[in-house]
Amino acid sequence: MDPVSLALQVPDAQPWIGVDLDATLFHHDFGNHLSPIGEPIPAMVNQVKDWIQEGKKVKIFTARADHPEEAPKIQDSLNAVGLFGLEITSHKDQHMTALYDDKAHHVIPNTGKIVS
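RE: above sequence
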């Protein structure tokens, strides 16, 4: 098999749900991009726990992942609310099935139409 075909294969790829960190999972001070991580938002923390209990894969989707010094802060905040071992990323891929984010707008697939 050629290297390109081999690189495109992801045998253990699993669908995943992306959950934004700031202002979705934890409160956020909008004055500073890398402000301290705020208090947890119980409704979303509980939703993430439910998804995990249902066997769904959840990743924390945040621009903070582009800053290596943020990783321990993010992990500590997740651990404090019982969300252990979740992958932290700033990249989506073809396996992401949904994104929960305070800034996202829903677009009807293949139409360009924004859902109001």
